[in-house]
Amino acid sequence: MDYVGNGRQVSSTIISLLLKSWFIFFWVLTILCNSKQAAGYNRYGGRNLASDNPSGFISIDCGADEDYIDNGILYKSDRDFVDTGISRPVTANNSGNLRVQLKNVRSFPEGRRNCYVLKPEKGKDNTYLIRASFLYGNYDRKNTTPIFDLYLGANLWWTVDWDNGYVETIYTPSTDYINVCLFNTSKGVPYISALELRPLDNTIYRTTAKALITMQRSDIGGRSILRYPADVYDRIWNPLNVDLLNFSATNSSISQGNNDAYKIPDTLLRTAAKEQNATCSLSYFSDSLRSNSQFYVYFHFAEIEKLQGKQRRLKIDLTGQRSASTNATLDYLKPLSLSLNAMPDSAGQLQFSISAAKGSDLPPILNGFEIYSAKEMQNASTVSEDADAMMGVKQAFRLIRNWEGDPCFPSELIWAGLTCSNSNASSILSINLSSSNLTGEIPASIANLLSITSLDLSNNELTGSVPDFLGKLPNLITLNLTRNKFTGSVPKVLLQKAEAGSLTLSVGENPDLCASLKCYSKLKKYLALIIISCIIAVLLPILMVALVIYKRRKQRENLKRSIEERLLKSKNRQVRYSEILIISDNLKTTIGEGGFGKVYYGALSDKTQVAIKLLSASSKQGPNEFKAEAQILTVVHHRNLVSLIGYCDEAEHKALVYEFMSNGNLRKHLSDPNTKVLSWMERLQIAVDAAQGLEYLHNGCKPPIIHRDMKTSNILLNERMQAKISDFGLSRVFANESDTHLSTCPAGTFGYVDPTIHLSGNFTKKSDVYSFGIILFELVTGRPAIIKGSEYNIHIVDWAKPFIEEGNIQDIIDPRLGGSTESCSVGKFVELALSCTRSTPAERPDMNHVVSQLIECLKMVQDAMPQMPQMPPKNIEEFSYNSIGSESLFSPR
Ligand SMILES: *[C@@H]1O[C@H](CO)[C@@H](O)[C@H](O)[C@H]1NC(C)=O
Ligand SMILES: *[C@@H]1O[C@H](CO)[C@@H](O)[C@H](O)[C@H]1NC(C)=O
Ligand SMILES: *[C@@H]1O[C@H](CO)[C@@H](O)[C@H](O)[C@H]1NC(C)=O
């Protein structure tokens, strides 16, 4: 028997031992044989893009330009699997019907050995089905079928001497990379059509052999070739029909138990050859196998007839040099796979027969079988660790140096630059890749070359750092990295070995590489020192300062809180000067300057702001008196008086702590061009507020408090523009002093002081009313009490009176109001201002009266205002318009 197809008649032998009841199977590699089968092959052609690629399949269409999906399997172009060769289309006449994988070949006109590299996902020590297909198809138009050797790793797999067929093996590699190599044996240019790898379950096809080569795989009674997806492992099953056989079939599906890892296709198991007479056997005889390998036969059964209480027991015999046999009992619709192995007998023949075992009620059946010959794969090769490491180096450097197949074998094809140990399982002893135009980094797989003694990578363009693993190669004695572009520093271990003399290390001409033990160790030490001192020098002071600032801030915050507590909640409103400094942040911000001293900004907390009036040192006042007065003032409370919330009474420093008025004084609002112009309504409201405050001092306090210094800069505005009178009572505090030091004591302000004071020398309620009248004039005219002219200054009353007397009130109204005043109220207001400033104090009104008159003025303005709509709005638009409009018309109060 040979395995040759080539369209010739397949050789077979028929031996009849008994009469008609002995049946002979043909031992055929059907796919190998003829074009009829090629047509069957083609049944699976065509593209089906809807399917996914089965996991772990590697399917390479050699010579194809692009990837595609065929029958649910992703076939890839071979460009990522091979570095050499050229793509050629076949010219066979029937190429239109060919399965698509066979339409192109890759041929290898150059080099003795050219290899495909497969790297299955599951890696080494797993079982795979590997199939290489060849269709010559006169691709080179020489009409001569090339003959060449196919190698799996370092071992001859098959000599391809036919023009159409495939070689298939079940293989458990000991390396992660699998080399499939074509050897030119000077009988034509090697070529290949397709290469396929399928992962198998590791529990099936277990033998002591390293590889099993497929001889036959038959689907008894089948009608067409079966493969993926019917067979999940993509085994190719050829139909076997012999006229002499009887067949039995079922439509029921075979219960594929999950634990039946052979996963024989259901379609296959549903038909079986059957002998009618239980005394007869199903037998199979081989031709001379001309082989001294062990043969493995796998029998696949499934009971497909209802047994109805009977039993089908089988006896299976395989006969060669010795015989092997086994028994089996079948269960309905359950698959069963068995295997036997034997060597061919002295005539090179092998036979098997399946007969009814003793006690069986039924004749034998057989659904399918496979025949494999064992392959030991014992050729000398590189040890697997080193082989995989070298494949890693090859992939990393993408060498085009004929690094193909096994690195060390055959010895005449040893990879350029390598030396290998002299044994059947060779290790790599040295690599010399000097001047090889290498780029990139040193590949990590070199770390696995434990036997290497010499590594020469000099004179390349290698970059990156010199890896630490070089220092761990136990046998390395020569390392030449000269003339590259390495960076960083040479690992300490290498430098130490070099110093100790156990390593010849050459690392020169790498401009950015630090290559001295000193440099290396110092650098590290100093780096650590520098980093530590940096931390000490920079971070520590920053931390300490931050800590101090934080602590101080916290302390200050606590102090402020206790001061606030005391000021706002207790009756004792006295604070120390040191505390004044804390709350004013050491008198940082000046917010005003009055007759009695400067005013500073202070904060008790985020919420409570204060104004601190520091009384000038020149005011000499008996300590007790100041304290007494200040204590009285702290209990005067009215919403239109600026509250005194505390005082400081120390010999050198006297201070008053007031509530903070964020909008400053009225004078500023009337004269400063940068502030928003106060409307007439706002001015009236301020007048009412101030009048009410003064009225309270005059009539609400016992004894009455005469302000003595009413003026627009003493009327302060808070954030809601509410007016409050400040500095009340201060003149009295200093009154005693004013008797003796008249010049230094402020007693009223020029322009506001009642002219009759000079006659009486006494401040009275009516002198406050005069000052208030001046304030009213200022509000309506926007001008100061003393109007500065180019030639002479003029008092506001003297300026306004002539206009009023002539009835030209409009001419004195602040032009900034832009005429938007209510004229009745203005008339009444001016009248009131005039009455307040009458020269005879007795004719001036009481503040009581002033307040009521001003409120009437305010009412006049409010009544003249447009009202909010009383009726529900007609629609939303109108309403929103009205509400916005009216809002802007009303004063903020
Ligand atoms: C089966 O074969 C044996 C031997 O050839 C023969 O004696 C017997 O009659 C056969 N039985 C049937 C049912 O044909
Ligand atoms: C590597 O090969 C070059 C020539 O290609 C040679 O000069 C050099 O000495 C070799 N290195 C070693 C370590 O043998
Ligand atoms: C290292 O390689 C360089 C350049 O190829 C060469 O000149 C030098 O002699 C080599 N050193 C050793 C020790 O072989």
TrEMBL record:
The keyword Kinase applies. Keywords: ATP-binding, Kinase, Leucine-rich repeat, Membrane, Nucleotide-binding, Phosphoprotein, Receptor, Repeat, Serine/threonine-protein kinase, Signal, Transferase, Transmembrane, Transmembrane helix. One of its GO terms (cellular component) is membrane. It comes from the Eukaryota. InterPro entries: Kinase-like_dom_sf, Leu-rich_rpt, LRR_dom_sf, Malectin-like_Carb-bd_dom, Prot_kinase_dom, Protein_kinase_ATP_BS, Ser-Thr/Tyr_kinase_cat_dom, Ser/Thr_kinase_AS. The chain crosses the membrane at residues 12-32, 526-550. It catalyses: L-threonyl-[protein] + ATP = O-phospho-L-threonyl-[protein] + ADP + H(+); L-seryl-[protein] + ATP = O-phospho-L-seryl-[protein] + ADP + H(+). It is a single-pass membrane protein. Residues 585-858 form the Protein kinase domain. Coiled coil: none annotated. Its EC number is 2.7.11.1. ATP binds at residue 613. CDD domains: STKc_IRAK. Signal peptide: none annotated. It is an enzyme of class 2 (transferase). It is found in: Membrane. The gene is LOC111488546. Its main location: membrane. It comes from Cucurbita maxima. Pfam families: LRR_1, Malectin_like, PK_Tyr_Ser-Thr. This is non-specific serine/threonine protein kinase. One of its GO terms (molecular function) is protein serine/threonine kinase activity.
